[in-house]
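Before anything else, study the sequence and fold tokens given here and see whether the fold suits the sequence. Record follows:
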Amino acid sequence: MGRIHLFEFEDQGWFPGFLRDYGTDFLQFLSNKTGMYKPIVPLLVETLKKAKQRPLLTWLQVVAVDY
């Protein structure tokens, strides 16, 4: 089966900015409400510790508290 090339409306210059912002905000709301990234947070923290990425690790630990 061949690849089907689709586009996202939000990536088009003619798409209204307020709708683009609404879509982004809605996706953030869903991820916060459902905790869909919660299972991966410990893996990310461990990986960042091994890579010695302190600024990002500090941010991730602060964010993880919300979950």
User: Anything to note?
Assistant: The chain is about 65% helix and 0% strand. The mean pLDDT is 82. The radius of gyration is 17 Å.
